[in-house]
What we know:
Elements: E1 4-10, H1 19-31, E2 35-42, H2 46-55, E3 63-67, H3 83-93, H4 95-104, E4 109-114, E5 130-136, H5 144-147, H6 152-166, H7 172-180, E6 183-186, H8 189-194, E7 203-205, E8 229-234, H9 243-254, E9 260-265, H10 271-280, E10 287-291, H11 295-304, E11 307-310, H12 318-326, E12 331-334, E13 348-351, H13 356-369, H14 373-387, H15 392-409
Parallel strand pairs: 1-2, 1-4, 2-3, 4-5, 5-6, 6-7, 8-9, 8-11, 9-10, 11-12, 12-13
Helix pairs in contact: 1-15, 9-13, 12-14
Amino acid sequence: MTKQKIFVSAYACEPGLGSEIGVGWHWVLEMSKYFDLWVLTRESNRQSIEPWIAKHPEYNHIHFLYFDLPKWARFWKKGLRGVRIYYNIWQWMTNGMVRQTMQENDIRIFHHLTYGNVLWRVSKYGQKQFFIWGPAGGVETIPEEYSRVYPKKMQMVEWLRRTVAGNLKFNIGFKRRCRNADLILCKTDILRQYIPARYRDKAILFTDVAVDNLSGAPVIVECEPNKRIEFITVGRLDPWRGFDLVIEAFAKVVKKNGNMHLTVIGKGADKERLTALITKLKLTDKVTMAGSVDMERYREYMRNCDVVVNASLKEGAVTVSFDSMAMGKPLICIDTTGYTRYFSPEYAEIIQRNDRKSTIQALADSMVKLADAHTRYEMGKKAQQAGNRFTWASRGEEIFDVVTKAAKGKGIK
């Protein structure tokens, strides 16, 4: 049977990595099982994509297209610095490639996959076709009560985000994309509520992450009651990811049980503040700032930890949360109205985002609860069992179902 053709805009798409880049890659692989794909991504991703495809020829039917601005025109961009400006320029400059490729290959469906930020540009031509948008977010905000302890620059950033979100109904580009989209995949219910009411019937909740089959996933065994309890929290060190909340909660916990250790994995702008907080709370022998680690080292940390903590105040560090399932580790997380709907109290401590003091106390209470070896064992087993329902293969089936249903509704078969 002939597969439906889809053009996918996947700026972030590369094998062997986590976060949004890994999400883009996994989505492309899963969609390729059901659809004939043309995937537009950055030229810099070619050096990792093509060797991977050579080793996995079962995926060589995916049509990859690459584009980057010439070096002289992107000297100012480095890592995530300048990424928003560069991304929007990239979308504008690739619009002709989208149009030409879709017309020459008779492709009627355009899927804007990454980056999934509803405030950022989408191909002008693509969004006038059958347009799938997301999974997307970008309008979730941090209350001032939390952000007032951030560095001044980040306080201003969060104020600006709240202002933008509060005035979203006046954002012409956002409203245009909502009107043009035929299917809007929302990472959170917060975003879905921001979609204008007349377009909300096109919006569904759909997380962008799934459980990866990490190599060497452990067999769950009951822990020794007196072993040191290892907590781990992972992600880019941005203030909104809640690492300060974890550290402050941990300070409360070690006063009751000193046989605990916390490892913070990641790098970012908030490192200096977090390090100072650890020193202030006299936790230098209890908390390790591990910095950025490669994937193998990350897996080792995951295998050896007892509990995973994700205190992100909005969608973030989602990959590690799903990895906790694969590795059979209980998760402590803050409800973001998004990915957390895949987690149950049977294997996760899901904390409501209340006032800052209450949230910190709830994190501490959950850590105390999971200090019990038998509780961790039972929750870890259930986490790994649940992970079997949320694999990338099952996510691929979901993607196929929602896309096919939406396309048929518009007469595209």
